[in-house]
Specification:
Blueprint: H1 9-14, H2 26-44, H3 47-72, H4 82-87, H5 93-98, H6 100-107, H7 113-132, H8 137-140, H9 145-170
Helix pairs in contact: 2-7, 3-9, 7-9
Length: about 170
């Protein structure tokens, strides 16, 4: 039996370095630091490239978070926030793919008040669904290893997409 190594590279990556160890609400910190990453991602990639990168990052996160669980000897430890990091960019995919007006505004280099409000909406909606865990978000955490760590966040991102697309269609 080995002693858990919180400095193993998979644990460091899964915790986003020090981010997962910030006091109180590590998932909120992980989401907050990821919004600028997601904004940059959608600026430099076309929507389908964003889908492919998001898929690749999600698969990497499943593996890395599963390995971090083993090294930290804990099931879905709170300090692991890589799952938020890979799910937040997915929150933008629906609007990018299915709302040309939203896609145009999000991919422009200038930060307008509307774009900032959109990013704030993504942040708040994602945290809401990640904390509330409506069906099937909550039960997906029962999946084994890294799948349980990452899948609930990806499903929460799906809810965010639904709300954003509905909001864009209505307003």
């Amino acid at each position: 039996m080995h002693t858990p190594d919180p400095k193993h590279w998979t644990a460091v990556v899964a915790c986003l370095g020090p981010v997962g160890h910030l006091p109180k609400a590590p998932g909120t910190w992980g989401t907050a630091v990821t919004i600028p990453f997601a904004a940059l991602l959608i600026q430099v990639l076309d929507p389908w490239q964003s889908v492919m990168i998001s898929l690749g990052l999600a698969l990497f996160a499943v593996w890395c978070c599963g390995a971090a669980e083993r090294y930290l000897q804990a099931r879905d430890p709170g300090c692991v926030v890589l799952d938020e990091c890979v799910a937040v960019p997915c929150c933008y995919l629906g609007p990018l793919l299915f709302s040309p007006r939203a896609a145009e505004g999000l991919t422009r280099p200038d930060l307008t008040l509307k774009v900032l409000m959109f990013h704030l909406a993504v942040f708040l909606l994602f945290r809401f669904f990640d904390i509330l865990k409506p069906w099937p978000v909550g039960i997906s955490q029962r999946l084994p290893g890294g799948w349980g760590v990452v899948m609930d966040d990806l499903l929460a991102a799906g809810y965010v997409n639904g709300v954003l697309l509905l909001g864009l269609a209505l307003f």
